[in-house]
Amino acid sequence: MPQTTYPRQPSSFLTEDHEAFRQTVSSFVEREIRPNVDAWERDGQCDRELYRKAGTAGLLGLRYAEAYGGSDLDFMATCVLAEELAKGDSIGTAVALMAQSEFALAILADEATDAQKEAWMAPAIAGELIGAIGVSEPGAGSDVAAISTRARRDGGDYVISGQKTYISNGTRADFITLAVRTGEAGPKGISLVIFPTDTPGFEVGRRLDKLGARASDTGELFFDDCRIPATNLVGEEGHGLRYILSHFGGERLVIAAFAVGIMERLIELGLSYSAEREAFGGPILGFQTWRHRFAEMATRLEATRLLAHQAARLLSDHDPAGDIAVSMAKLHAADAVQSVAAEILQLHGGFGQMEESPIPRYYRDVAGFSIGAGTSEIMRELIARALI
Question: How far apart are CA 266 and CA 228, in angstroms?
Fold first, then answer.
């Protein structure tokens, strides 16, 4: 079936360098990701070698210092990377890479010491180590301040006990940027540490069986009197919640950009299918009902793209308005991409329910967009606080 290329609207937020980078990522996806996604979805994780290839291609440290192997680029480059990775027919693979580059490393880039960056960040940017961020717990999801995993100071060490869950890259990470409680209950008692997963007392529990994003391993983690050096503290003790909250913007931007890439891919698949598929004597693309639905889907896509790119610009400029802009972008993106996925599934009819098509996978994958990196309910509350 001939493939349609979506006629992307020009963006004043993107430079020629951004567009050249888009081609680099697109080629990487076609060469290294799309041919392998079916196997990775079955296995529940992508190959470890993919991290090394992504590191060699310069995809794991876009916004980080060149001294540690990064590229010193901006949030617009992050948007472009996420959009193109999301078009690879497996959001799980995109999540696996971005959980490392954007989630595990972002706080280290801003708060870690030079020695910590050399030891952990540089090899992660190169794809030699896999990183994860460990925040969520069975009793602490959206309420980050409620975490209970405890890090007790004992001389020159921290001794860590507790449990984490829903941790992307968690089952095979070499290190975790780990949120722990070092002080009193509440927001001021939280700190971040770099936790090496070869530490005695650490155990990976179940690899969780998820609705979507199946090529991204997600795990339960257990800590039983795990002793790590106190020099693994990231930034200042008691400032962990502030570090986490101040970096949510990047995670939320990635989700919005994922939605842009997925909608673009779904519309391309839908246009190609409906131009070839005949019903009642002609292609179904000829029916006004579907032509108008495509018009609505394209409008949702471009509105989401503009919101995401505006948020990326504000975040790059360190504008305080970026936090609300990215909340709006993520909220809108989750609704838009779930709507488009449902429309394209409906367009494909019975074939859209067959696993030989990427449509069911995308339909499952986008279900989590209104949950991960801050639920849509939290996004609405953040936006409302800025208005009222």
Answer: 46
Residues in a beta bridge with 179 = 192
pLDDT at 2: 63
Fold of the 131-238 domain? Butyryl-CoA Dehydrogenase, subunit A; domain 2 (2.40.110)
Classify residue 109 as left (phi > 0), alpha (psi -120 to 50) or beta.
Answer: alpha
For the record, the structure tokens of 362 come out as: 């995308």
Task: Could you list the beta-strand ranges (E) of the chain.
Answer: 131-134, 150-154, 157-168, 175-181, 190-196, 202-207, 218-229, 233-234, 278-279, 282-283
3-state helix, strand, coil in the chain (%, to 5): 55, 15, 30
Q: CATH classification of 244-387 is 3.40.190.10, yes or no?
A: no
Residue range 221-261, pLDDT digits in tens: 999 999 999 999 999 999 999 999 999 999 999 999 999 99
Q: Is residue 350 packed enough to be buried (19+ CB in 10 Å), middle (13-18) or exposed (0-12)?
A: exposed
Average pLDDT of the residues in 355-370:
96
Question: Which residues are annotated as catalytic?
Answer: 251
HEC secondary structure over 193-216: EEEECCCCCEEEEEECCCCCCCCC
